[in-house]
Amino acid sequence: MSEACRVLKQYFGYDTFREGQEELVESILAGQDTFGIMPTGAGKSICFQVPALMLRGITLVVSPLISLMKDQVEGLNQAGVHAAYLNSSLTAGQYQKALGYAKAGRYKIIYVAPERLVTEGFLDFALHADISMLVVDEAHCVSQWGQDFRPSYLKIVEFIEKLPDRPVISAFTATATKEVRDDIIDILLLQSPKVVTTGFDRPNLYFAVQSPKDKYASMKNFLELHTGQSGIVYCLTRKYVEEVFERLRADGFSVTKYHAGLDDMERKANQEEFIYSRAEIMVATNAFGMGIDKSDVRFVVHYNMPKNMESYYQEAGRAGRDGEAAECVLLYAGQDVVTNQFFIDHNKDNQELDEVGRRMVMERDRERLRKMTFYCFTNECLRDYTLRYFGEYGSNYCGNCCNCLSKFENADVTEIARGLIGCVESCRQRFGTNMIVDTVHGANTAKIRNYRMNENPHYGELAQTPVFRLRQVMNHLQLYGYLNVTSDEYAIVKLTDKSEAVLKGEERIVMKLAKEQEHPAKVKGSRDGKAGRGLKGAAAGFSREEFTEKEEQMFARLRALRTEIAREENVPPYIVFSDKTLVHMCILKPATKEDMLAVSGVGEFKYEKYGERFLQCVRNVDK
Ligand code: ADP
Ligand code: ZN
Under a CB-based contact definition with an 8 Å cutoff, are residues 205 and 399 in contact? Predict the structure, then answer.
């Protein structure tokens, strides 16, 4: 195991790096400037936090957002790493104190707001400290091409130039466009940086577009199916936020709101309500979310179509950061286009541009709006559309968006049905589903040979039909009573009084099937290593969808324990453990310390703090 892997496991409790992470870590450790472009949720923080722990001195992380800093620092402290943040949320006294500790070498990682960098107080510390790395998080903020340009980011270069020794510089962003990437490298003066880009696909997110007659009613339906889960409802304007918030509250939902028209105090309080899971649903404008790292957001509903795909993917991407399945639903209406058009025509953000420049920006924004509108109308795979927008190539079938899942056609499966039913009959109704499917498919397994099913007249009869299709038809036959599966532990497939008609060719079987896919959807290993147990869950690694009743019960108890601990520690629940970690616990059912440390997301420090309590909780349910 590499040293970096050891650190990953010890502090963060993860067994393996995700795509791109190790490359970025190694590059930083080799002393090279490094630039990581990864989508939201891909795990950028790990890429600089792991090397920060391995390098000799201090790592400074420049970050534009107070909420993000707080969240990351809390997370690090929970993992046993000494970290702090220096920004305007601290009083002068607190700031001096933190700076004092920093000078005394107490912190390994320090988050700092860009405008602090070249202040006297901070320089006094930085010029005498051993700074081994400078991280520029949300690096697109240096670019005027980006959506979030921050002039204070230009101070970063000024700061670096003042340092006696130039540290390794690493930059991270989720923004993909080429102009912005080039800007980042040029403006930050990165020295022949190692650039790593990982895919923008988020396989665990389900995407859907609906154009309902009554948006509110259709959203309400959706929310009722998701009670107990955290989610965000984005609206285009403050007025919509207020309206939707009031209606949801009146309808008894656990809801809070956020937009730029609320005063600071209320915004902050509402944000915390949501982050700490005291309110389930956040209704907000796009002012909410940048840098909010709540990892267990299970759905993002757009009550209005946003202004462009960049905004949409960024906002929708706040769902499912823990890698568990999550849903992103956009509710479209023609009025949304009109509203966005109005914003573009009355945009006051570009006053400093001349007439020609303003026209160009306006044209660009209109084009972006058009592409966003196409998204709402396309019949193609929504994921594919999005990835192509960002310059990547997806497969034209993802199997996890509303278009892929609703492209059905009526297929005549009578021949398949006859093969399956015939096989059940000829083996004298002695076997379960797998054996029947394997037989007609012509599998060459020991089990087949042992029961001499390779001599069955139907053996290999449907070798050309994919196994997933055979299973689909098998399910259909059971569902409609052409076959029956015993409900005892052996789950034997039996004939019914409807079977005969199919065998005799008196009845045809027609079922709705997803249209033939050219590229079968990627299915990664699921918990027992077998592929194909439901795409959503499989893509996420381990999933609650396959939980037994006992595991469900365990999950509920573990969540309650997590809430209890979060209250004691005064941190959001997901900082204690992510949903994914709890799901993994339910599956592994750890009995010892070693077992517990094998759970993804349980590092040594967290084990020492809470391991025993979670073990006890697992034991109580698993008796
Ligand atoms: P980003 O900043 O890229 O949006 P984060 O750094 O917030 O993403 O990471 C998203 C989530 O993924 C976090 O909950 C994080 O703990 C988790 N994560 C990161 N790296 C790994 C890994 N190697 N294995 C498992 N989970 C990881
Ligand atoms: Zn799709």
Answer: no
Helix (H/G/I), strand (E/B), else coil: 88? coil
**pLDDT value, residue 176:** 62
Q: Show the ligand 1 pocket: residues with CB < 6 angstroms.
A: 14, 17-18, 21, 38, 40-46, 293, 295, 321-322, 578, 600
Match 């391991």 to its residue by tokens: 611
Q: How open is the CA angle 6-9-12, to the nearest 5 degrees?
A: 130
> Within 10 Å of residue 512's Cβ, how many Cβ atoms?
9
Tokens coding 615: 């073990």
CA distance 238 to 286: 10
Task: Please say if the pLDDT value at position 621 is more than 90.
Answer: no
Which atom in ligand 1 lies closest to the alpha carbon of residue 295?
14
Give me ligand 2 centre to Cα 399, in Å.
Answer: 5
- Reduced to 3 states, what is the DSSP secondary structure of residue 370? helix
Looking at residue 536, what is its pLDDT? 34
Integer Cα distance of 138 and 409 in angstroms: 45
Selection from 510, 335, 320, 492 nearest residue 413 by Cα:
510
CA separation for the pair 136, 69 (Å, rounded): 12
Residue-level pLDDT at 515: 57
The per-residue pLDDT for 162 is: 95
Ligand 1 centroid distance, CA of 356 (Å): 42
Going by pLDDT thresholds of 50, 70 and 90, the confidence category of residue 489 is low
**Across 479-491, average pLDDT:** 77
What is the number of the ligand closest to the CA of 396?
2
Task: Tell me how far the alpha carbon of residue 238 is from its chain's centroid.
Answer: 27
> What mean pLDDT value characterizes the chain?
87
Rounded CA-CA distance 475/482 in Å is 10
- Looking at residue 575, its amino acid is I
* Burial grade of 225 (CB within 10 A; 0-12, 13-18, 19 or more): exposed
C-alpha 74 – ligand 1 centre gap (Å): 15
pLDDT score for 538: 32
End-to-end alpha carbon distance in the chain: 35
- Output 175 or 189, whichever has higher pLDDT: 189
Nearest CA, atom 2, ligand 1:
44
Which residue intervals of 252-354 are DSSP H helices? 264-275, 309-316, 334-345
Smallest-distance ligand from the CA of 48: 1
Pocket-testing residue among 2, 6, 11, 14, ligand 1, by greatest number of atoms within 8 A of Cβ: 14
532 alpha carbon – ligand 1 mean position (Å):
25
Nearest C-alpha to atom 26 of ligand 1 is from which residue?
A: 14
Q: How far is the CA of 382 from the centre of ligand 2 (A)?
A: 5
Residue 371 one-letter amino acid: K
Per-residue confidence (pLDDT) for residue 541, from 0 to 100: 52
State both tokens at 63: 């970050």
Ligand 1 centroid from CA 11, angstroms: 13
Q: Is residue 549 over pLDDT 80?
A: yes
37 alpha carbon, distance to own chain's centre: 16
Q: Is the pLDDT of residue 529 over 50?
A: no
Cα distances from 207 to residues 28, 213, 330, 365, 622, in angstroms, run: 35, 20, 8, 23, 36
Tokens of 90: 């601290």
Task: Give residue 146's pLDDT.
Answer: 62
Nearest Cα to 325, choosing from 229, 233, 397?
Answer: 229
- pLDDT at position 2: 87
